[in-house]
Design brief:
about 375 residues; mainly beta; six-stranded mixed beta sheet; single chain
């Protein structure tokens, strides 16, 4: 019952998608139901790519200008990303996962990681990522929120240009994508156009783009990837792949960058930091991989009332006194389509203890 107005400019030619990010609104679940069925419960037989999309999607084709020149290929940093499958992880159902290769030896074919390996890129550095599909199903991989060539965008049977589109990556096959990140920020990668529930069984991960010469400080720069993990239509919420995340340690007076990413199939989140019964404070500095202008950076109550799937938010948080805080993440599925997820599914609350201590002094 609300409206939104947006303005955008097309900078890259090719095929693009404008779509809702709720799976129930843009996938095979929107296919016409079979006789006697309220809604489809499985993907069409042998469907790949475009055949697995439906509902709230709009295809956009951007034609090149007459003076458009394709970028000259250059030497690129090369990464190898593997899609693995391991049987009988969720009861009798398998798990899928992304594992970044380290060194010359590929990971085992059944290697999975929840969430997928965090990928670190550098602004302006030409990079190629070769995705190897060691699973049993054809898949696409989408690089969520980053500007790149249409061919590498990751929507099977659509990304590319009219007459030349990428296929789904078949089992045992691979596909190389290319990108030169134009800005630093917080992004995600995830499976696209999947025939089942592969997203929730592990096929998502975060990737961070840093400024040149600024390595990742893993202590001061924390990531919280909000997702789901499990088989079926209502997999339980997790943070960084954990249903019950361990406490995290912080120091008084130190400023931390907290990167929140949300890639569940069909829910919304409320993210808050409490000190006792009261909200703490933080400063929002980026949204969806874009730094906010100085005028929009202000200290505010530590709360995202609604964080929809596909969103990322970066905040700066400086605990001023020792003591425990609570990172509370409330997951809701209210108002979703009957027959897929109950319209009034109970909310799920997950809490992470944030332990703030006084820095130790050197003797």
């Amino acid at each position: 019952g609300t409206a939104m107005r947006l303005r955008w400019e097309a900078h890259e030619p090719g095929n693009w998608l404008f779509h809702c990010h709720l799976m129930q609104h843009m996938s095979w679940m929107q296919a016409p139901p079979r006789a006697g069925e309220a809604a489809p419960h499985h993907a069409p037989e042998a469907a790949t790519g475009e055949d697995l999309l439906g509902g709230l999607i709009l295809g956009i084709t951007v034609t090149p200008r007459p003076d458009h020149r394709r970028a000259v290929d250059v030497a690129r940093r090369a990464l190898r990303l593997h899609i693995g499958k391991r049987d009988r992880v969720f009861g009798d159902q398998p798990a899928y996962g992304f594992v970044l290769q380290e060194g010359a030896t590929p990971p085992a074919r059944d290697s999975v990681r929840f969430p997928g390996s965090t990928i670190l890129l550098t602004r302006g550095e030409p990079t190629q990522i070769t995705v190897f599909n060691n699973s049993d199903v054809a898949l696409g991989v989408h690089w969520h929120g980053l500007e790149l060539e249409s061919w590498s965008d990751g929507v099977p049977s659509w990304s590319g240009r009219p007459g030349r589109v990428i296929p789904a990556i078949k089992p045992g096959d691979s596909l190389t994508v290319r990108m030169t990140p134009p800005r630093a920020g917080t992004f995600m990668y995830h499976v696209h156009s999947e025939p089942g529930h592969q997203l929730a069984t592990g096929l998502y991960g975060g990737f961070l783009v840093h400024e040149p010469g600024m390595p990742w400080d893993r202590d001061a720069d924390r990531t919280f990837l909000l997702g789901s993990l499990g088989a079926g239509e209502q997999p339980p919420p997790v943070v960084n792949g954990e249903r019950q995340p361990a406490p995290q340690e912080f120091e008084v007076g130190r400023t931390y960058r907290l990167r929140f990413m949300h890639i569940s199939p069909d829910d919304s989140k409320r993210v808050q930091i409490f000190r006792g019964d009261s909200l703490d404070t933080w400063t929002m500095v980026a949204q969806d991989g874009a730094e906010l202008p100085a005028a929009k950076r202000r200290v505010q109550p530590a709360s995202f009332r609604i964080m929809d799937t596909g969103n990322t938010f970066d905040v700066l948080w400086t605990p001023t006194e020792p003591g425990d805080r609570t990172l509370r993440i409330r997951t809701a599925k209210d108002g979703l389509q009957a027959g897929f997820i109950p319209t009034q599914a109970p909310a799920h609350v997950l809490e992470i203890a944030l332990r703030v201590t006084t820095p130790r002094r050197s003797p």
